[in-house]
Design brief:
CATH superfamily: Nucleoside Triphosphate Pyrophosphohydrolase
Number of helices: 4
Number of strands: 8
Mean pLDDT: 92
Strand content: 25-35%
CATH topology: Nucleoside Triphosphate Pyrophosphohydrolase
Shape: globular
Radius of gyration: 16 Å
Low-confidence stretches: none
Number of domains: 1
Order of helices and strands: HHEEEEHEEEEH
Structural class: alpha+beta
Length: about 190
């Protein structure tokens, strides 16, 4: 995306295929945020929120996802987080988050190359005295790891490879389940 993160993200969002009506509504809201005034990437932007980046990391063989146990939510989710000022784009942010949370740097694109895999908007509860409730506008990418070796970082209570068939709602959330269904379709499962 080069030096123009906002314009690059707008172009990516415009060409991103929505898997269903809900994801299409997320894309429309994300386009409105990217076109709004102010820094849409700033973690201090709370009305309505800001962009984040996350990554679904497939095993080298493609049948498993690397999920982390989220400390605050107690759910198995994909690695991800805020887009830092030094991140060139959402892809760089997603790669950095994977490196920080599970220690994997050897990642290849799953498929044709840099593209958005999934879009999600979710509410972050207020932290009294620190930040109000707001939304994370999460741009999600899909990588294939070149190795199965990982180490849970400080942001993750635990991490593990989970077979696509074994990922369940309740242990994870509906947005992860949507991504699993998309991945299974890509794999022809």
């Amino acid at each position: 995306m080069g030096g123009d993160r906002r314009g690059g993200l707008r172009a990516l969002l415009t060409k991103a295929a929505a898997g269903d009506a809900l994801e299409a509504s997320y894309r429309a809201r994300m386009l409105a945020l990217v076109d709004s005034e102010g820094d849409c990437f700033s973690r201090d932007r709370f009305d309505p929120g800001h962009f984040t980046a996350s990554a679904f990391v497939c095993s080298p063989e493609g049948g498993e996802l690397l999920l982390i146990l989220h400390g605050k939510l107690g759910l198995w989710l994909q690695p991800g987080g805020h887009v830092d000022p030094d991140d060139e784009d959402v892809f760089a942010a997603a790669r950095r988050e994977v490196a920080e949370e599970v220690g994997i740097r050897a990642l290849d694109w799953f498929g044709a190359g840099p593209e958005i895999f999934d879009l999600d908007i979710h509410t972050i509860p207020a932290r009294p005295g620190r930040e109000p409730a707001h939304e994370h506008f999460d741009v999600r990418v899909l990588f294939r790891a070149r190795t199965r070796a990982f180490e849970a970082g400080s942001d993750a209570k635990d991490a593990r490879w989970v077979s696509l068939e074994d990922i369940r709602l309740g242990q994870s959330d509906e947005s992860v389940m949507r991504a699993v269904r998309k991945l299974q379709a890509k794999l022809g499962a």
